[in-house]
Amino acid sequence: MSCRYKIAALNWYGASDLYFVPGGLDSRHRSEIAATIRRMGFNTVRFPYSDQLVIENPLIEREHISANLDLYDAIGNTQNGGLEGQPKGPRALDVFKACVDAMTDAGIAVIPNNHITNAVWCDGKNLCDAHWKNDQYGPICKIWQSTETWIDHWKIIMEPHINNPLVIGADLRNEPRGLWGTLTWNMWATAAEQASEALLKMQPNWLMFIEGVSSANDCSGARDRPIKLSVPDRVVYSSHVYSWSGWSTLVPYHKRPYPSFALDMERNWAFLLRGNIAPVWVGEFGCSHNGNEGDHHYWDNLMRYLRETDADFGYWALNPRKPKNYDNETYGLLADNWESVVEDWRIQDLRKLMKQLDT
Q1: Cα 227 to chain center, whole Å?
Q2: Which of 22, 36, 166, 217 is at 20 to 30 A from 113, Cα to Cα?
Q3: Which domains can be identified in the chain, with CATH numbers?
């Protein structure tokens, strides 16, 4: 008899950004951050990376991991020593793996996420980052990628974790999109199946998380064109729901009454749950700690819907700061010390969702 594992996740970002390093490693040891996540009640972390990280795998500067200098002893002085006079130290992939290991050692499940092609906070207007490949645009993209190289990068990310049972799967691509109407569900589903099959050859127990199109809003294409894999029961669809989302009618969710909001959720992804077709993970949602009336309206509607559907979820984000310019991350759940929880209405509501794990 199988038992459901409900994903109650946090997003811990930074490895996908310009310094190639998960946030907070200059403040806390990675094992301490993992312990904090566990103490907060979350059982899973969505862990983003960029393709540029895999391609370049740069040496990481000490200032970005100053609370994790044991990585120099454990990794840097052995694997990456190079010739005399050359720089020594851990590379981006080493740091990524060390953080995954720290989380799973703490009993936290991890889902690596291919978040972006270029290493940057957000390139929402850059077609070179609009989905998993950009080779159709020729030489204009700084970081070039085909479907085949995208899959190769996934293999590099996942290979060290083949025998780690708490690395439970791969979130194949963050918010696939394109110029309006140019990225069809079928295009994405075909690529997702290719990547999934390659990864399942490595480890058939991994789950394959397939985000919706239109920036992960819309999984409705799975009604007529479901993801089909050679290993059964490995597909999890994923949707992102923010206050500004709501592409189907151009009315954002912070303006929707609950019946309209719930209807959009049903059309976009909840039909998969209600029809017992496939599991769904709401892998990103979030709100500023100083949210306005519209933010609270959206949040209350989403919390109600997540409770009613008992859907798996992933809050964005853990981080108190963004890497570039050390900007304040108003969606973050931690204070600047990377240990104290911001005790507000968001974490209170998330704890109510997490109580469903015990019921």
Answers
A1: 20
A2: 36
A3: 8-358 (3.20.20.80)
